[in-house]
Amino acid sequence: MATQIFVNLPVKDLDRSVAFFTQLGYTFNPQFTDENATCMIVSDNIYVMLLVEEFFKSFTKKDIPDTAANAQVIIALSSESREQVDAWVNKAVAAGATTPNEKQDQGFMYGWGFQDLDGHLWETMYMDPHALHQG
């Protein structure tokens, strides 16, 4: 069995977060969805658990960082092309996200990201396989 990853993120308003990520094309597993949480399917082995803040707090004694002032993680996903990078971020912005950083173009690697409605940072990057083999 392949290793799976479940990223757990606190959210202020679950319905609002589901609507946001639905606009980006993600779907959710109804088996793991209730008023406290949902399981967003990123790929066959990557899932994001969106947990209402009070429910999230039941898993840790630590405070939830204020995402307006602090960053705890950057969730980075690969893309198949530069165009896919831009399309994903543009969809997020159209759904209400912001772009805290400029696009990064290093020739062999191209990336960009957004801050979601709860302040979580997301990035996507495309790495040119031909340029990688030349370096």
From TrEMBL:
Lineage top rank: taxon: Bacteria
Pfam short name (any one): Ble-like_N
SUPFAM superfamilies according to UniProt: Glyoxalase/Bleomycin resistance protein/Dihydroxybiphenyl dioxygenase
Residue span(s) of domain VOC: 3-127
Protein name as catalogued: VOC domain-containing protein
Organism: Adhaeribacter pallidiroseus
